[in-house]
Structures are given as structure tokens and as C-alpha cells.
Amino acid sequence: EDMPFRANGELSRFGVGSKKAGFFYGSCLTAVSSIRRGAEVREMRMDKDRFIAQEAAGRDWDSNEIVSRDRLNRKNRTEEEKASPALLALYDRADKLPSYALFVISKIHANKADELKDSQVPAIASQLRDMYFVFTDGLQAALERMQQRHSCEASSSSPSTVPGSAHPKATFAWGAVDIRVVSHKALAGPEGYNLSLRDDTAADVKSVRALIEESQAMEGGRANLPREKDISHDALLEAYRRSPYALLQHAAPEPFFFRFTLSGRMGAPDRLFSDPGSHQWGEVWGMALYLPFVNGAEARDAVVMHEDSQAVCFWAGRMMPYGKLRSLPPFMEWFKPGRDKADQKVIAARVKIMLFFGAVSAVDSTKFRLTDDILDDLMDKQVAHAEFKRFEGGSWRRTAKLDGDFKKWNLACHEQYDQNCELSGRLPEPLVEGGTRYVQFSRLKYGSNKSSADYAVGDAAKLGVTGDGYGSFTGDKANRTLLVKVKAFIIAEATLDAAQRAKDPLQCAGCEVLVSRLPSDLYSEASNRAFAATALRSKLPRDLTALRQSELKKKPHKLEVSFVTAGGGAGSSSGSWTGKTPDEALRIEAHAPLPHVCVVPMNGDHFKVFDWRSDFGGRVEALEVQQRVQFSAGAQEGFGDPPPGRTYRVSKNK
Questions:
Q1: Coil, strand, or helix at residue 343?
Q2: Quick check: 619 and 475 in contact, CB under 8 A?
């Protein structure tokens, strides 16, 4: 338990893995290392072209030499390396460290060159972030975000029925590790990216997570971000979909944590096991995640697993990108045809797991996948694994019925988090919009079996929207909430078969809600707009009262009027504005044209209302202002009506 999720203190080891990874990208790999401060630096260059030449000459192809040099000595640098100031600076930075290991890959394969372009660096960094998920406290951060999400979703009216909600400690035990990915656009070019794999990186360094969130915002149309550095957003998002971070993001916020000792088959050779004679591979930590049906779609469709694996696997804290389980372990396969309901098969299929191997040594040499021996033992129903534990109530507890506990958790997640729609009260007239016919209903029950919301036509509700164009006042954000009145619940007729079209109530994956904005004295009830039913947030009076007050504050409370005294002609939004009070009149010469007037509506928050829309689509009509003029002639003073035709029509912003 001193090693959260089986992460030891070693980020990596010298071995076959680093060389295989290096030759994947290029045909020459230079290994550089120094064991302590003041010690000389040793280098070995492994060049495939040299190996071939040695073999052709009848010499041992794999014989090589290790070259020693003093620190900060560049005598062994090749001409290609000397042409790259960035690489030379990297050698110098390494030489100033107490100890280090550095691998330089050169002679890049032509078919891999595109993968290493600057635009692809964020995607590469995302994959490295996944590899060191535990070391950089990514697991801890993801679990904390999941816990926050759980706290936000929980309410007194629908308490969680899922057993256990806390998570075990997942912080890397040997301190905060920060791994940076730095790129340069050319050999002698400027720095392209300096990315941190940590989510809580320093303010002056960009995190990979921040780049992913920006790309997601662009994909969702919520932001128009500059395409600086020509980042490949598609490659970054595709890498993220394959990430354990994505798995945790889309999962229900109450995982099932478990541990067990992985046993081996009787008769297997002792050399396979970390503890010869015990026939045990070692302890494995696990986390089961439920990917619910929400927003009319399966959450699991938003995540890509390697070759449809049911698990993401880690060894000593590092992700094994090619680790694969074709199914869940036998002690988690609770669904039995003929015994359990048919729809429970779908519920069981919504579970994915993470497995963390620690003392298990017989993963493959690259530590990228599990060996067949481990897989066979893990999936063999006849192998009796030992020491089952689950995390509940803030501590690990032994259990003799992990399979029963898991089934209970699985079904509770379904009850709590799977969402669906039940429409009732069919309205007689269909809605036709843009050539599409919609069936209308007057009532919606939406949500999970344990926690559902009930809405009806005429209800006032809090609606969450994304993007602009929904009608706004000054200062509105792209993601905000609106106060609305429910007009109908609609579903496209073409999406229903003949039997469904006649059903009332109708069960469906999702529908839309037709609404008008409130308060009605600010917005036209005749203007309607449809949103996904998932946008409905609440109809509780306490939520609506605060939102109504907020809306009323934004409506125009007074008009500020001033003259255009210089610059900007009629209809211009530029110029010099001079406000005058009755005590300080604006003086003009007789027969001179009267100046133009600027009228600015101000709201209760003392902001200018420069983009007030009367409903979802229309704008406020132009304001009509009459100007009165005080004439001064000798001792006679008084107010007169404006000259004939002197009526000003002033549009918004003018």
C-alpha cells in the first residue's frame, strides 16, 4: 500500500525496450549516460548502416564500442549534430545534471517523418502523458475531478445508491514528477512546443491537458482559437480518445476499486513467477468503470480501446499501450443467459477496467503488453486467485465475494446513471419545421431509474446552452443558463417505426424540448427554439428565482443620451460624445443644424445593453427619440417644440 497503483520509483530501466522504441523511428540510436556528478560521460552509437557494413565485411555485426568523454566536451559530435544548436544545448543541459540517461534517434525513417512534424507533437505528448499517467499524478488528478463531478451531481433528492464513492490514494509516492516535451521546428529553428505532462504545471508552461481542452472546444464549435504552430487538432483528439483520461472522463463518477493476488496454473514452471514455488504472479490492483447511456448515446462510443480490449493495463505504473484483455476476468463475468434479464447483458457490457501490475515480472520484454502465460492464468476459470480486497469506506477490506460485490455495483450504476426518455401526453397536431415532421408530447420523464426529472408543458425551467445565438445581453458567456417556458417535447417522426408512432407513453433514447424564453415581459413567447432534452437542468423554485432576478437585472433600466459633437456623422458608431444636463446646455449658433444624438440603454448592473435581442432570433426595433430645444433670445427664454420633421430614429449602438 506504499506504492499506489503498483507504481515503483523507476520511470524506466536500461534494456531492450528503449532500443526497440528508438529503432521504431530511425536507424541510428545514440545512448548517452553518466552515473554521478563529476563522473565522465559514456556514449554508445548503434547505427544500422554500420551493422550491415560490418556483417558484409565478415566481422561481428553487433560489436560496438563505448566512448568516454568529459562533461561539456563536444568532440564526439557529428556534423549533423553540430548543425543543430537545440540538440547541442540539450547535451549541455544534460551534462550539468548529477546523473542522466539520454537517447538520441537519428536517420529517421521516411515513413515515420510525418509523425514527427511539429504539428504532431501535441499528439505524441498526449500518448506520453498516457504512458506516465500514474507518475505525473494524472490518475490522482482524474480521480479528484471524478469526485468533484460526483459531488456536483449528487443531491438530497436523489442520493447515490452506488456502494462506495471515495478513492484510494493515487499520488505518486516518490514526489511530484514533471515530464516535459520540447520540440524545435528545424535543426537551427526556434522552440516549437514546451509541454508539460502534468495537469498542474507551472503557469509559464502549457499542459497537454490545456491543449486537448482547446481542441475539444474547437471541435464543438464553442471557440474560434488561433491555429498557432499549425497544431493537428484531429491527431490530438484521436490520441485523447485512446487515453485512460478519456475513459475516466466519460465514466460514471463512482468506480469499483479492487485488489487480488494473481495465481498461476498448477504445473507451470517456477521460473515464470516472481516468487518461485508460490505459483503466484503477484498482486494486481484494479478499477472498474461504468460507461453509462447518456444524452441518447453510449458513453463507451466516445472512447477507443486497443483492438476492442476490455481493459487498460499498467506495469509498475507505466501504461502498456498494447496490453489487451478480450473480456473481463471470470470473477467479473456475472451475466448468465437464461438466469439474468436480456437487457442486463447490455448493462454488463458497459464496464471497462484498468489493471495495475506491480511485482508481476513476466510481462513482455518491452513492457508494452502482457505475455500469453499471464493472460491465460488471468482468464482461466479454474485458477483460484487469492486475497481479494475492495476499497470501501476509505480503506481496503477483504471480501470472499468480489463477484457479488461487483454485480451489485454494476447494477447500482445502471440504476443511478443510465439515462432515457419517456414521453407521454401526445399532442394531436404534429409540428412541421424546415420540411421535417415532429411528433409532439406534453410530458417528459428523463434521467436514470433512480434519479429522474419530470417536466410538463407550461413548466418554467432552467436550461443549459452552449454556443452563441440564443439571445443574449451584454456580457453573456458562450456556456450559460437560460430561463425558459416549456412549450412541447418533440421527436422527429422519421426516427420512429410504425409501432412507435402509435405509442403513448413512448420510450426513446432522447428527444428535444421546444421552449420560449422568460421573463415574458422581456422576450416574445411567440418565438420558440428546440434544444436537446439533456439541456433541461432544473425546475426547482430556488433555482428559478435566482435566474429570474439575474435576467431582470440585465434588462434596460434607463437611457443615457448624449450629443455627437465631433467626428462620426449620422448613423456612425464612432465620434466624440458629450453628455449635457439641463444646467449645462449645449450651445449652437442660430440656424445651425442640430447635432446627432447617441442613446445608450443601461441595465440594472450598469452595463450598456449593446446586443439586446427580443427573442431567439429577432432584435429590438429602433428606438424613437424626440429632441426638445431651449431657445434663448434676449430676456425671453422658453421651451419650444422641435422644428417640423425633427424626430430622431436611433438604432441600437448608434
A1: helix
A2: no
Q: Among residues 307, 529, 566, 322, which one has the least CA distance to residue 434?
A: 529
120, 346, 607 from 340: Cα distances, Å: 47, 11, 61
DSSP-based three-state secondary structure for 168? coil
Give the Cα separation of 640 and 654 in Å (integer): 26
Residues 108, 23: Cα–Cα separation, whole Å: 9
Nearest alpha carbon to residue 348 among 418, 268, 397: 418
In the chain, what is the straight-line distance between the N-terminal and C-terminal CA atoms, in Å? 68
pLDDT tens per residue across span 351-378: 999 999 876 555 666 678 888 888 888 8
- 639 φ, ψ (degrees, to nearest 5): -100, 140
Alpha carbon distance 549, 522 (integer Å):
12
Question: Apex CA 246: angle with CA 244 and CA 252, to 5°?
Answer: 100
At 135-154, the pLDDT tens digits run 999 999 999 988 887 776 55
Angle at 162 between CA 295 and CA 297, to 5 degrees: 15
Helices (H), 365-455: 372-379, 402-417
Q: Measured between alpha carbons, how far is 153 from 417 in angstroms, rounded to an integer?
A: 10
pLDDT of residue 248: 94
CB 205 within 8 A of CB 196: yes
Contact 165, 150 (CB under 8 A): yes
Report the phi/psi class of residue 308: left, alpha or beta, with left for phi > 0 and alpha for psi in -120 to 50.
left
Question: Do 325 and 375 touch, CB atoms closer than 8 A?
Answer: yes
Q: Give the predicted TM-score (pTM) of the model.
A: 0.66
CA 464 – CA 473 distance, rounded (Å)? 16
SS (H, E, C) 590-619: CCCCCCEEEEEEEECCCCECCCCECCCCCE
